[in-house]
User: Fold these one by one.
Assistant:
Number 1:
Amino acid sequence: MKILIVGDSYASDSSEGTWPYYLSKEHGYEVLCCGIAGSSNFTTLNILKQTNDISFDYIIIVLTNYHRIPVVQDYPHLSAFLDNHPRFETFNGFPVDYKDALSKYMKYYYDNNFLHWVTISVIKDIMDNIYPHQEIIWIDALLDTEVLMIERLFKKGIKVKGKLTDISMEMEIGEALGIDPYKFIAEMSGDPRRNHLSSANQEILGKFLANIITKSKSGLELTDNEIDLYKVEWDKDPTKIYAEFKEEIKKR
Amino acid sequence: MTKILIIGDSYAEYGHEGTWPHYLGKYADAEIVCAGIGGGSNYTMLQTFKEKFDDSFDFVIPVLTNYHRIPTVNGYPFLCAFSNLHPRYDTAEHVPPGFKKGLQGYFKYFYENDFQIWVTLSVIKDIMENVLPTQKIIWLDAILHVDQLNFEQFIVNGILVKGALTNISLDLELKEVLGVDPLKFMTEIDGDPRPNHLSKENQKILGKFLSNIVNKTNNNELINKKDLNLLKVRWNKDAEKIYSEFEEKIKKLK
């Protein structure tokens, strides 16, 4: 069984202890993880077109914010850096004239409807570009497909309910640690958690996805609970979650 | 009565008497709704399509523009065309302050050729998906140059006219007949005085050319390759007539 993972930073690391690692480990699946931190949904489509071949059985698409600027030639890591990014004010790695160009971009070129349409077209294009035997698992990282009311688009594959930011930011940082997650991340030089999840929850997510794949492969019906991130028993131990940030906080 | 929607860029902007949409209506006995937007991008065209097209139309004529046109100029649709590739980029005076500097930043950090091409292909797909089986599309190429981009393979629904309108308005009328450098000439006269960028005689010829396609489609007659090829049309090449279209503008500038 071969699984391809594409998407943004929530899908960017498959080293030991990450959710792609646990997904692979659970049933001995072969996993290729090609997510790129900071990328747009258009980048995800491009990566899928470059990496997908007939040998893959499942493709996990991790969808990101639709407002991410899909095209930053030669500066792929900047795709995510619109002025609503939590580290927009504190990040010091921008090219010298980037912020000025971005402000002009927002004034003259940024069109919410256009970027929304781009994401819809990306989703359609993905469905048109997979092999007939392949199954897609769609996960929202930062794209709120329910709020955007675009659930009807997912005509092929299994759509996971819920959003990974609700786990990694709202639950782990906001609820478990009791702090403002966006302010907290902005204060650090970046999120030290691989794929933005704490270690215990990486394992839980990996197992959650492994269950979806195993059951769907066997032709068994998945219950609503089995495809709902909000029904999962996530680890909410503040000591464990805080430990993930400790080194980063000490450094600062 | 046949009902036709025309969408696209400045080549599809005007439908008044004497323009090609007017002649198309006349010779195909059709009601024309002409909704092209000067300077618009292909995405702008899609938005117009979604706004205007409904079950009452029998045909839609999308007039495809340059793929590199920036599709998102919030509140400034006429500026879609103003990339540094636009013939009047250096001379246009009606752009908002800061726009050109912003454009430089756009090309440095945000412009990606592959993305622009993909957007245009997605626009084409979107239009094809949203036309009923009883409705027909006639794809007209203004500045996109479908042949060179190898786009024909993606246009699987509708009738594709071969050749681009710039081949007529710029290469034939200005370069071949008047013997001027079309882009330099356009810059010098500060804009094209011809509605839809075509001289009067050729507006009529284009209207007739398209009405033939519409009439043959309506009558289930065979449309041959020549009927669909702009480069095989006998265009008007009378230099005096073509020049007269620019005379007033040149006088004013002098």
Number 2:
Amino acid sequence: MKSIIIKSAFFLFIVLIGILLFVTGKTHVILPENKNIELNGHTYKAFSNVELTIDNEKMELYPRDRLKMEVKGQKHVLHFKALKRNGEEVEITTAFKLKLGGNMFLLNIPALAAEDKQWLQEFKLP
Amino acid sequence: MNLGKKILHQLERNLVPILFIFISLVAIPLSGFSAGYLVQEILIRLSRNSFLVLALLIPILAGMGLNFGIVLGAMAGEIGLIFITDWHIAGLQGMFLAMILSIPLSALLGLMTGKILNMAKGREMVTGFILAFFMNGVYQLTVLYGMGSVIPISSSNLVLSRGYGIRNAVNLIGIRQVLDNLIPLQIGSINVPIATFLLITLLCLFVLWFKKTKLGQDMRAVGQDMEVAEASGINVERTRIISIVISTVLAGFGMIIYLQNIGTMNTYNSHEQVGMFSIAAILVGGASVAKAGIKNVFLGVGLFHLMFVVSPMAGKNLIGQAQLGEYFRVFVSYGVISIALVLYALRKRRASAREGQLLADAQGGDE
């Protein structure tokens, strides 16, 4: 009996380690974009210029740009500094969590600046 | 025994490593490679192959000879790598997850191999060799037809355009050299993969510790004489199966370490030569079918791969054809296994003849 309990506990421990490795090692593709977007009847205009940092990886986006980056794990920190067409500056830092099952996500900067809930959407290749 | 006989005996015992040292001494100057380059190459190959070769030690301890069945563990490791690539798991997490995924499969394959080898006592090596060929067919069937159809694989980078079956080459970019580059150390122009060597050291310590455990002692007893071990209450068949299971699981890990270093997996061929080259390496290190230690592993991997590195260039510089060196190294791999097996058989025959003579002398003395 004792042997069965020890073996089961060991098996469970290995399974848990496996799950932990899966969650922390899963890579996702993020597609940050600076494009006009219409969501829930609102139109969000692209910025003149965006300086974006996700987990210390910097990139710069101009209107109609869509870039690609790969991240590991579910939780990430995003910081961006954007310049509106009227010269006004927007700066946001936010933490976000990606869906474990998703491989690719579309990140719309203008929607994020407007705090629209759909600023991050799963993207599936057609 | 006089001095001449002692020297001759030592020479005979270490004939294979001596032969390799001699070949290397001739080939190194001919190749024209610098010492730094050769040291770097040997370090890379030691880190890449040692774990796989160490997986051979435990079945030798249990008297099961050279385990050609490590190819089965290598296949299990490859299947683990296919899954982590499909699930997009990268980094050390990917490598260790592939190891975890390979455990049940390699343990099951090890169990099957152990049971079959128990039915073929005394012919373990040839049985293991043929079993590896058989399981290669099962592996190819599973990967070529089962994956993507029965076993869900969704990544278009992995699945063939027809919708099922895995592509010939799998890019392991997510885990490429993650272990080797974990603790970087540069001495001059030479990179030393510290983390890989630490893992190999851990396995060496495990082997040393394992030999001292009850199970390890049982294996040694089984390896020395199965009948005596059985009479002393050891479950011989179970002990032999456990040794093969441990070896197969370790081979699965070894294959993952090997492929993380290379960074690309040749789906249908990567595992094929693993058994042959690992066994050749341990034999080059002076091991025999019945006796092997950790020093044989490192000496063997070092010498065998030194020849691998220098022989093509030596062949090219000597007669203008690198192909000769390629032929040479394949010929030597097979040749060294043959020499080691023949020497082992000769020694065994000589020992039993000597024992017979001693017995006859003793009986003659009694009369």
